[in-house]
């Protein structure tokens, strides 16, 4: 009987328990049952992130990119990517009846006839500038703190590619309106392409669809600007954020922070709220700037004409380094060989500079890894002063970039300062070679000095500004001991020593490689200040530079009975 009942029960239809939840919870449960996304979302929401103001630089870049996508979508509704000729009859009276391209005419319509169009145009341009500068500052933060080390080398390369693509995307973006200024930039770009040895002419004809200017460059730039490059950048950003979660976020040194943990707050609800608020702050500030400060007033330049050149034309600041490199190259570098003209007075500073510049940035993590021989994972950041050689290299590289950028304005400087443009050019040529070297040496000396100051601060304490006189008439300044948190920040790092390769038994190429690597390692670690060890700290507390009498006086100074003369004749007592 029981067996038959069991058989009936096994084939009887089961009643599914209805989920009483509705609304958003019900929708979430429905999605999870069909996608299994709850586990991943739960893991992400509990992800811990450290808290430091410098981490916001990357967030600014992300939020600026979101603003670019939103405003760019708005602009595509009215922009006409065509170089076909038309006669302007819009609202801007000074240009009425002028022949121009449809791209320029549609940009004028967006600026003067579309409600809110000018604000969106300026918001798009300012967000682009903010995007590039925030990427640059974020990469500086990553470089100077050593956040590019294992296992984040791939993320460093992704950031470098994003930086380079942002520059290219920006150039294409401000070239689309086809005004006289942007047309001059495209004409310069075509000249750079022509300087490419042997294949420059073919590349130019293929890109422009014939001779300059043709009618294909604006439509092709438009396709690259709104489709291909943004898609690549979105994919790179997604990979960047995924690797950020996989590797866990880096953190600054402090008590309890190691390479095996992360001290901070979970993504939900703390960082979700902070990130949302910070996005609107970035959006609001960018909108405020766009409302009050005009930029790229194309109507002041007029439509592009190949026979005209804008006087004093300059690219946006992030392309200035290439223009500056071009101006500093001497003309005698051009020569004829093998039946071709080799324009080495143009090609290295225009076409070759970009891949070389960003290629050197991209491969630096492997260079430092080879020099230091450090194969470990690093999740705790360095203070820039504790890696003096790396910091000096970064500052030297920044000076090199800045000199090239300012060199792009040598003609404007000559006019405004009433100086010879040749003298200014010679000055920049000197600075582009010796400026980074001087910056490297000065920066390294500053870092070492700061390390020595930190070491002295840990061993002897903070200067209190209180002068104490002993019964024998001796004067000295009383020092206050550091609290544990401050002391940890000053001693919680590892000063690597040169890990030289043993060259005994090596011959030929292997011996040369080992000697070369040892030379670079000694260069990297030749000047270093070791952190204070616990034994040194203990010895400083008992057998420091001050003798036992000073220690006794300081101990008495903490009691209410102490009355001592201070420098200047005033008195200090324990009673107030």
Automatic annotation (TrEMBL):
Its cofactor is heme. Residues 1-25 are annotated as: Disordered. Its EC number is 7.1.1.8. Residues 27-253 form the Cytochrome b/b6 N-terminal region profile domain. It comes from the Bacteria. Keywords: Membrane, Transmembrane, Transmembrane helix. It catalyses: a quinol + 2 Fe(III)-[cytochrome c](out) = a quinone + 2 Fe(II)-[cytochrome c](out) + 2 H(+)(out). SUPFAM superfamilies: Transmembrane di-heme cytochromes. Coiled coil: none annotated. It is an enzyme of class 7 (translocase). The chain crosses the membrane at residues 60-80, 123-144, 156-176, 188-209, 221-246, 277-299, 346-367, 387-406, 426-443. The keyword Amino-acid biosynthesis does not apply. InterPro entries: Cyt_b/b6_N (IPR005797), Cytb/b6-like_sf (IPR027387), Di-haem_cyt_TM (IPR016174). PANTHER family: CYTOCHROME B. This is Cytochrome bc1 complex cytochrome b subunit. It comes from Dermacoccus barathri. The lineage of its organism: Bacteria, Bacillati, Actinomycetota, Actinomycetes, Micrococcales.
């Amino acid at each position: 009987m029981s067996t038959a009942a069991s058989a009936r029960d096994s084939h009887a239809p089961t009643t599914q328990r209805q989920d009483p939840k509705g609304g958003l919870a019900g929708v979430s449960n429905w999605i999870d049952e069909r996608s299994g996304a709850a586990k991943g979302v739960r893991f992400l929401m509990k992800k811990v992130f450290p808290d430091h103001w410098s981490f916001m630089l990357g967030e600014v870049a992300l939020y600026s990119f979101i603003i670019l996508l939103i405003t760019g979508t708005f602009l595509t509704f009215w922009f006409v990517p065509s170089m076909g000729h038309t006669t302007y009859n819009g609202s801007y009276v000074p240009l009425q009846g002028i022949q121009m391209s449809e791209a320029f005419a549609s940009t004028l319509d967006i600026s003067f006839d579309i409600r809110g169009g000018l604000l969106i145009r300026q918001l798009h341009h300012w967000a682009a500038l903010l995007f590039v500068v925030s990427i640059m500052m974020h990469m500086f933060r990553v470089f100077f703190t050593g956040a590019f080390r294992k296992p984040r080398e791939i993320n460093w390369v992704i950031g470098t590619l994003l930086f380079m693509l942002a520059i290219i995307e920006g150039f294409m973006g401000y070239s689309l309106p086809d005004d006289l200024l942007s047309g001059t930039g495209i004409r310069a770009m075509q000249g750079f392409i022509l300087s490419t040895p042997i294949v420059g002419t073919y590349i130019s004809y293929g890109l422009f669809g014939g001779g300059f200017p043709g009618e294909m460059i604006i439509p092709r730039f438009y396709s690259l600007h709104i489709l291909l490059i943004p898609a690549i950048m979105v994919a790179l950003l997604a990979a960047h954020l995924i690797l950020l979660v996989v590797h866990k976020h880096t953190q600054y040194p402090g008590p309890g922070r190691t390479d095996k943990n992360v001290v901070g707050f979970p993504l939900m609800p703390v960082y979700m709220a902070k990130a949302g608020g910070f996005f609107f702050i970035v959006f609001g500030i960018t909108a405020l700037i766009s409302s009050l400060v005009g930029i790229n007033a194309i109507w002041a330049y007029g439509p592009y004409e190949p026979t005209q050149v804008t006087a004093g034309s300059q690219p946006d600041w992030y392309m200035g380094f290439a223009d500056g490199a071009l101006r500093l190259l001497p003309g005698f570098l051009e020569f004829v060989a093998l039946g071709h003209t080799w324009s080495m007075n143009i090609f290295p500073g225009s076409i070759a500079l970009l891949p070389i510049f960003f290629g050197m940035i991209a491969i630096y993590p492997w260079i430092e890894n080879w020099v230091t021989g450090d194969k470990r994972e690093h999740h705790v950041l360095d203070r820039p002063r504790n890696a003096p050689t790396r910091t000096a290299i970064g500052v030297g590289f920044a000076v090199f970039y800045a000199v090239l950028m300012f060199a792009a304005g040598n003609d404007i400087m000559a006019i405004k300062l009433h100086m010879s443009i040749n003298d200014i050019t010679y000055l920049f040529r000197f600075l582009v070679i010796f400026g980074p070297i001087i910056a490297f040496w000065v920066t390294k000396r500053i870092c070492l000095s700061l390390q020595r100051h930190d070491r002295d601060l840990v061993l002897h304490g903070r200067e209190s500004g209180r002068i104490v006189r002993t019964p024998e008439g001796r004067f000295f300044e009383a020092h206050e001991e550091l609290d544990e948190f401050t002391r940890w920040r000053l001693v919680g790092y590892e000063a690597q020593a040169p890990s030289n390769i043993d060259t005994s038994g090596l011959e030929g190429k292997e011996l040369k490689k080992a000697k070369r690597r040892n030379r670079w390692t000694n260069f990297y670690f030749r000047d270093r200040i070791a952190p204070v060890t616990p034994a040194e700290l203990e010895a400083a507390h008992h057998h420091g530079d001050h003798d036992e009498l000073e220690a006794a006086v300081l101990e008495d100074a903490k009691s209410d009975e102490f009355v001592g003369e201070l420098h200047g004749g005033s008195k200090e007592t324990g009673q107030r």
